[in-house]
Specification:
317 residues, mainly alpha, N-terminal domain of TfIIb, Cyclin A, domain 1, 4 domains, four-stranded antiparallel sheet, two-stranded antiparallel sheet, 6 strands, DNA-binding
Length: 317
DNA sequence: AAGACGAAAGTGGTTGA
DNA sequence: TCAACAACTTTCGTCTT
């Protein structure tokens, strides 16, 4: 599985707006097949091309790592082809189910009862697991998240179950928190509000489950970077990739000057987008930005005042 | 009339004794 | 466990376009 994002990985994403990229099969891609976004980003560290909106990994090994990688890849591909469908974490028994038929004739009543008790427990945990996976899938669909993130979420749930962390807790809370974590880990964070909207539980419970899982699975989720929100917010505001790049540039300068310390990343992202849009002659009102980002106009104002003053950006309306 | 501005009070989460 | 604290929100009156 791809495991994401440590601090040092920040900043090595390179924007390739409007540029064409090649998948391993040699096709040209310009937009994300999952969500249609044109914000495709190359991560040279992991040698991936992925969608900055939803996190879908479109191509791996896009960088020429030497002449032999294709052969390597092909060999693997053909080897896999012989084993059947790729194993997935999203099927409750990892897709390796076997059909077993029992002959129960001749068993005594007692033994049967015992067996039923045992399988009852197995059935209920199994049942809730299946429910959890379907919930992850439902919410991931609503958020338009790609398979790789759903896989990661399912895997996290598996780990949580193995450690017996689910018992006595609401599946809804856990699954929502897990999805929230998975998005963060893949560098396409969702806001707590966005996640809450498609969840069946409230924000309080999601946060509780979130903190609980981080502690118990000792996951390290570095605080979300404002940069990670920019492409998605921009496309929600119908702003071009140029503006997105400009906003990211502003954030980078702000980060160097340590203007982002202690501030909420979403507020920073919102302000940077607000500024970038005005500078590009594509004005968006504070209300519009506020609506898609979920931070108030007041916060956008405060951040954008700070940024424009400290970075000597003249924002003339 | 809509957008931007900023003061002031309120809220929820973190930190440190 | 409690209080102090910073960031953010809510609310609202005022100014600008």
């Amino acid at each position: 599985m791809v495991t994401p994002e440590s601090d040092e990985e920040k900043g090595k994403y390179k924007k390739e707006e409007g540029d064409e990229d090649e998948t391993a099969e040699g096709e040209k891609v310009k937009e994300c097949p999952e969500c249609g976004s044109k914000s495709l980003v190359r991560d040279y560290g992991k040698a991936e091309l992925f969608c900055a909106d939803c996190g879908l990994v479109i191509a791996e090994n896009i960088v020429d790592l030497g002449p032999e990688w294709r052969a390597f890849d092909f060999e693997q591909a053909s080897r896999r082809a012989r084993v059947g469908a790729p194993m997935t974490y999203r099927i409750h028994d990892k897709g390796l189910s076997t059909l077993v038929t029992w002959g129960l004739q001749g068993q005594g009543q007692y033994k049967l009862k015992k067996w039923q008790q045992r399988t009852h427990i197995a059935n209920t945990t199994e049942r809730s697991f299946i429910f959890a996976l379907s919930e992850i899938d439902r919410m991931a669909s609503a958020l338009r998240l790609p398979m790789n993130i759903r896989e990661a979420a399912s895997m996290l749930y598996r780990r949580a179950m193995k450690k017996r962390l689910i018992r006595g807790r609401s599946i809804e809370g856990i699954t929502t928190a897990i999805l929230y974590i998975a998005c963060r880990q893949y560098g396409v964070p969702r806001t707590l509000e966005e996640v809450r909207e498609i969840s069946r539980v409230g924000q309080k419970e999601i946060s509780r489950a979130y903190r609980f899982l981080l502690r118990e699975l000792d996951l390290k989720v570095s605080p979300a970077s404002p940069v990670d929100f920019v492409p998605r917010f921009c496309s929600l505001l119908d702003l071009s990739g140029e503006i997105s790049s400009k906003a990211i540039e502003i954030i980078k300068r702000a980060t160097e000057k340590e203007l982002t310390n202690g501030r909420g990343p979403i507020g920073i992202a919102a302000a940077a987008i607000y500024i970038a849009a005005i500078l590009s002659g594509e004005h968006r009102t504070q209300k519009e930005v506020s609506d898609v980002t979920g931070v108030t106009e007041v916060t956008i104002r405060n951040r954008y005042k700070e940024l424009s003053e400290q970075l000597d950006i003249d924002v003339l309306l």
